[in-house]
Design a protein that fits this description.
alpha+beta; globular; Glutamine Phosphoribosylpyrophosphate, subunit 1, domain 1; 12 helices; 6-stranded antiparallel sheet; 7-stranded antiparallel sheet
């Protein structure tokens, strides 16, 4: 997972390093492997790392370029970073790590956000800070898989993965409109306003730039219509069922290969149903050491035998956690604490947290 935090004082001046660390520590559960803190004139950055690619300390964040002018904090994974790295190396860029963080940094510096963002295949939330001009570029992945919140005034920008990190820097007041909408059963917001007054969410597929003397500029870099291919239907209609199935398998295999790449050990949730079983079976072709995790809802809804049968067939280790009815109730406070705001409770939240 991982977490990011930052404060940029547009007028410059010292930033309290202890407060930066305090904010970062509110997100330790997102990245328990290390906490990184960096300060410069008018800038303070924090990062919680969950190590997946390049497990060495050299890949810790905040990550600075070789000149020391630009700093990046990044949460997520760039699945096609190896291909992007090869392109950058062909242009003469050298690297000192094997991480996707460094690839993202130099892709942004060389090509700019507008060109770089559409090339990214992954889930991400990041902030790139020019330490000289104090200009900030932030972006969130196409489907909002990684959270990114911010508070902006004429003098200051604060951003974080979770709203709790804002606590040391500002008064946390409820947003009346959002609370009212929730109480009227409209659910919680996914972009724009949050449950806290003055704290906003960058929307899925959006990029924001902020700089001294300029109002934050938010614009989309992705729309669902980007996926529309007018000729795809006709192309598929001209193919046999076998050809379509083979193409689907190839696409699934390639997607899983990209998602499952890591220098750390890889695990997979497995309900025992068709979807997760298919994904695990394809993933095991290239990684025979995948560990399976299963929430066994004890009783008539149990699918643990199907999960065990799959594990035996693929010769993989299955870790099962028994879940009884009371667990759905007792897990609510913990789930709510990690969400950081009221939400419409989904029954799988508790079992998934028990597995974690």
């Amino acid at each position: 997972m991982g977490g990011i935090f930052g404060v940029v004082e547009f007028r410059g001046g010292p930033v309290d390093k202890a407060l930066i660390r305090q904010s970062a520590e509110t997100q330790t559960h997102r990245g328990p492997d290390s906490i990184g803190v960096f300060t410069a004139d008018g800038v303070g950055l924090g990062h919680n790392r969950l190590s997946l690619v390049d497990l060495s300390e050299r890949a810790n964040q905040p990550f600075l370029d070789e000149t020391g002018r630009y700093a990046l904090v990044f949460n997520g994974e760039i699945y096609n970073f190896r291909e992007l790295k090869a392109d950058l190396e062909a242009e003469g860029q050298t690297f000192r790590t094997t991480s996707d963080t460094e690839v993202l940094l130099y892709l942004l510096l060389r090509q700019g956000a507008e060109v770089a963002l559409p090339k990214l295949n992954g889930m991400f939330a990041f902030a790139l800070v020019d330490l000289k001009t104090r200009q900030v570029t932030m972006a969130r992945d196409r489907f909002g898989m990684k959270p990114l919140h911010y508070h902006a005034t004429a003098d200051r920008l604060i951003f974080a993965s979770e709203t709790a990190a804002f606590g040391p820097w500002m008064e946390m007041r409820p947003h009346a409109g959002t609370v009212a909408a929730y109480l009227m059963n409209f659910g919680g917001p996914t972009r724009g306003v949050t449950f806290f007054d003055g704290i906003y969410q960058l929307g899925p597929g959006e990029v924001m730039t902020a700089a001294p003397g300029q109002a934050p500029d938010i614009r989309p870099f992705f729309a669902l219509t980007d996926f529309i291919d007018d000729g795809e239907y006709d192309r598929l209609m001209g193919r046999s069922e076998t050809e379509i199935v083979d193409e689907f398998e190839a696409l699934m295999t390639d997607s899983i290969r990209l998602h499952a790449f890591a220098d750390a050990r890889v695990g997979a949730f497995c309900s025992g149903g068709v979807d997760s079983s298919l994904i695990v079976a394809l993933a095991s072709r290239s990684n025979s050491a995948i560990e399976l995790f299963h929430a066994n809802v004890v009783g008539s809804w149990s699918e643990v035998e199907a999960a065990r049968a799959l594990a035996r067939h693929l010769k993989l280790e299955l870790n099962a956690v028994d879940v009884v009815e009371q667990d759905f109730v007792t897990s609510i406070p913990r789930v709510m604490r990690h969400y950081g705001y009221p939400f419409t409770y989904h029954p799988n939240c508790g079992p998934l947290m028990m597995i974690a």
